[in-house]
Amino acid sequence: QIPYGTQDENAYQFHFNSFCDTYSLHPILTYNGLRILDQNSVIALSQNFSRRTTIRFIAAKNELFTYLEANPKSAPVLQVLLRTYGGVFEYDTKINTLLIAKKSGISEELVLSILEKSSMHGIVEYTSENRDMELTFIVPREDERTINVFANKITAINENKIANVNAMLAYIHNNNDCRNLQLLRYFGEKKKDPCGKCDVCRNKTDFPSSKVATIEQEILNLLEQNARTSRKLIRLLAHEEDEVLTCLQYLLEDGTIRVNNKNEYSLN
Ligand SMILES: [Zn+2]
User: Fold this and answer.
1) What does R_g of the chain's alpha carbons equal in angstroms?
2) Residue 191 Cα, ligand 1 centroid: separation in angstroms?
3) What is the mean pLDDT of residues 86-102?
4) d(CA 82, ligand 1 centre) in Å
5) Residues 243-264: pLDDT tens digits?
6) Which of 20, 30, 33, 200 is the most buried (most CB within 10 A)?
7) What is the whole-number distance in angstroms between the Cα of residue 253 and the centre of ligand 1?
8) Nearest to 199 by CA among 164, 241, 220, 171
């Protein structure tokens, strides 16, 4: 634990899963929280899924030499370790197993198994743990003061996200305002005139789309019997002339009907 107001510049091994377990935190929320701290330069997060391996030679030197002679397969790795890391007799020394593998000309896996074996034979003390994250504190610990700097920013970002989703939902459910105006409002533009073309606008005119569908169906029923001119259709249908003409136009546009050389409409 870091005292208030101080900073510890060490990189910490951070066991993400056990951290979440210990404090009953949701892993995804926790990860996002850490990323926000990282983005705001409170901590530096390095994610490396590498292994942290430490080693210390515990055998006496003569004991070690006997062991090296008796175990020619292990000897090169142990010799590389002795040459690479000074103090390996005195301290638990953090080693780079990949480097040792390269220097010894064998696989990292084999290096680990040789270390395992040497450990069982009492030559070295060997620990190997998988670490998942490394965390460095960039600013001194000041709790709320540190967080407050960007807490407002994050609140604003979240509120903005919520507002966007709500605006989108409103767009889907709002059948009173012109769709185009709603969209423009969503993008922050202020415009007053409805487009006159979207489903909302068309339903607001005297000629709603439900009525269009009815008239179109009646026209199609008549044309199924005979090809007819617009004059005849208007006379046969109990609708306004301009409504019938508009529907004929729609049907022509979507290719449901056509006009023949006698100026009659017929089904396509
Ligand atoms: Zn509209």
Assistant:
1) 39
2) 12
3) 85
4) 80
5) 899 899 889 988 999 999 899 9
6) 200
7) 20
8) 171
Closest by CA position to 109, among listed 51, 67, 69, 68: 51
Given a contact cutoff of 8 angstroms between Cβ atoms, the answer to whether 172 and 52 are in contact is no
ipTM of the prediction: 0.97
Residues 81/114, Cβ–Cβ less than 8 Å: no
* C-beta separation of 240 from 207 below 8 A: no
Residue type at position 259: V
Q: How far does the centroid of ligand 1 lie from the alpha carbon of residue 174, in Å?
A: 12
Domain boundaries 206-267, corresponding CATH code: 1.10.10.10
Instruction: Please state the domain extents for the chain.
Output: 51-130, 206-267
Interval between CA 169 and ligand 1 midpoint (Å): 17
237 Cα–ligand 1 center, Å:
29
- CA of 171 relative to ligand 1 center, distance in Å: 12
Å from CA of 247 to ligand 1 middle: 20
